[in-house]
Amino acid sequence: MQAYLDGLLAAKLSSRSVARRLTTIRNLYDFLHREGQISSDPVRLIPLPRHESTLPKFLTMEQVDILLETPPPDTLRGIRDRAMLQLLYATGLRVSELCNVPVSSVNLEVGVVRVLGKGRKERIVPLGSEAVKAVTHYLGSGRPALLNGRASRSLFVTSRGAAMTRQGFWKLLREHGKRAGIWHNLTPHALRHSFATHLLERGADLRSLQAMLGHADISTTQIYTHVLRERLRTVLDKHHPRARL
User: Fold this and answer.
1) Most confident range, picked from 22-26, 133-137, 221-225
2) Domain count, the chain
3) Which of 92, 161, 189, 240 is deepest in the core (most CB within 10 A)?
4) Which residues are catalytic?
5) What is the CATH number of the domain that holds 155?
């Protein structure tokens, strides 16, 4: 068993991947031991590898402003992309959630979107005024022209009238990020992280943030408090006159 674990580590799998595989094997051995199929459970003595503690990357508010203004406002794709970016930053949705939002789940009069998240758990997320404005413009001027008479339940569609895919959104986001001069490898999750970090910076509480992000466990949400502390420490070290004394 230890040789198998060493092989996984030698293959340079992440500690999370190794831990998941080891947990599966642990569960199997535990079941066999409880059923009397084996006399002992040696796997439980093998410790799980520790996860690397990596803080999420996020954009500054200034970078977000630049990114949101990058798609051209006078083209069909630009109108759509502006709406997608505004909605993503306004809600902190996962990219899969964004692409799977049906047009019927958006209530622009109330300013909310109904989202089906992980584990098919439904949540209602509020929209800001800028997101409402961008999505309203897209629904009136962008989406009908992109569909060109075709039917689709999806809120966001391609120029061929098909539902926007995760891969398609990743591609357009990287294009806009590169054009905005932000990151060469900008990811949708960076906007989700930016949403969470900026809300905390402005005084949002963790429970509200947990509900909006759709986290089952608040410990997942708490990583953003570490991000905030790291950022505040950087600001202090850079600007306080006695920070480096």
Assistant:
1) 133-137
2) 2
3) 92
4) 94, 118, 189, 192, 215, 224
5) 1.10.443.10
Q: Is residue 123 assigned to a domain?
A: yes
What angle do helix axes 166-180 and 188-201 make, rounded to 10 degrees? Answer: 70
Whether residue 191 sits in one domain with residue 119 = yes
Contact 136, 146 (CB under 8 A): no
Whether 76 and 23 map to the same domain: the answer is no
User: In angstroms, rounded to a whole number, what is the distance separating the alpha carbons of residues 36 and 33?
Assistant: 5
- pTM equals 0.71
End-to-end Cα spacing for the chain: 52
Residue 227 above 80 pLDDT? no
Read off the tokens for 193.
Answer: 């992280």
Residues 75 and 36 in one domain: no
Return the pLDDT at 140: 97
- Asked if the structure places residue 130 within a domain, the reply is yes
Q: Is 18 a residue whose pLDDT tops 80?
A: no
Cα separation of 201 and 223, whole Å?
13
